[in-house]
Amino acid sequence: MTDQTAEQLAATWVRPEIRAISAYHVPDPAGLIKLDAMENPYNWPEAIRADWLDALGEAQLNRYPHPEAPALKERLREVLEIPADAGLLLGNGSDELIQMLALTLGGPGRCILSVEPGFVMYRMIATFAGMDYRGVPLNAEGFSLELGPLLQAIEEQDPALIFLAYPNNPTGNLFSAADLERVMRAARGVVVVDEAYAPFTDETFLQRLGEFPNLLVLRTLSKMGFAGLRLGLLAGPQAWTREIDKTRLPYNINVLTQISTEFALRHKAVFDDQTAEIRRSRQDLLKALNAMDGILAYESQANFILFRTPAGQAPAIHAGLKEQGVLIKNLHGTHPLLADCLRVTVGAPEENRAFLAGLRASCG
Ligand SMILES: *Cc1c(COP(=O)(O)O)cnc(C)c1O
Fold first, then answer.
1. CATH 3.90.1150.10 segments of the chain
2. Pocket, ligand 1, Cβ cutoff 6 A
3. pLDDT in tens, 26-64
4. Distance between CA 127 and CA 14 in Å, rounded?
5. Model confidence pLDDT, tens digit, residues 315-327
6. What is the CATH code of the structural domain delimited by 62-266?
7. Which CATH superfamily is domain 6-45+269-363 in?
8. How many whole angstroms separate alpha carbon 257 and alpha carbon 229?
């Protein structure tokens, strides 16, 4: 029996790289208009909710869910137009699939490569899996890919995994498809095109699966309106998905998610209307932001807008908005290219109005 405290023991045993990071922080949104996490602002129409509750009544909570969720996969293939010969894996959110990719392709000396500013989970999961991480800076002007440095990093590191979000989070832009093709041709490892924001853009690589032996496409239902269900999917050549599937924990998609998602996809038209509405509101919001003195808002192909505030004011504006009851994301301090930047999720029209009013008051 040791006489050391739990603190001392943890300091001895917890991997140093885990001790060095802080847990993914989610602020408490209680009582605030929540425009920080790219959620869909619209809930389901009343009639659909009643039918959904009926469907849930069939759930057998005493039984494990179907381990492969074949009915749900079939519907996803149909609705998202996933090529018939592509392999398909489901995850508890796409974050879990990123983790499965790292567990499958990781190992000592192996590297995950991405671009920065980008989605923070790529770096965090590289750390969890004991992998190296390399982030190549985006172009400072419009956040496009810096192809020269990127290709050079691919040559130097020979990364096992490259993640590119398309459109990118937190910048909202789409990279050039031609640049992405160059990356796929240059890399020997897997290139994951992360299309978390697919509902808000017309561009996709999903129909191009198979054209490149190392292309995989990641999707999620979170941003289109089902963040609470936690369902992500990964599609690509079966030679890859077969192997990645081995790292999946049994029954990772719970029975409530399987039933609810199948149900929701039967009503896809409702959610397509919501998406179209969000896309329209995005353009209104962009215009309103750019009409404000001292604000520079960037074009977005996603359901959020990145904007730059006058130098040195981002933290105060973020705090001011919170006092006015609106929660957005402060990105100042997270990356040099995001100095003075804030990110707002496109909400319902009345939420966007409250945000703009709060912003005007906080910029004063
Ligand atoms: C939100 C987001 C995800 C994670 O989505 P979940 O399916 O909710 O885990 C993945 N990639 C990008 C780029 C995101 O912005």
1. 6-45+269-363
2. 38, 93-95, 119, 165, 169, 194, 196, 220, 222, 232
3. 888 889 999 999 999 998 889 899 999 999 999 999 999
4. 13
5. 999 999 999 999 9
6. 3.40.640.10
7. Aspartate Aminotransferase, domain 1 (3.90.1150.10)
8. 5
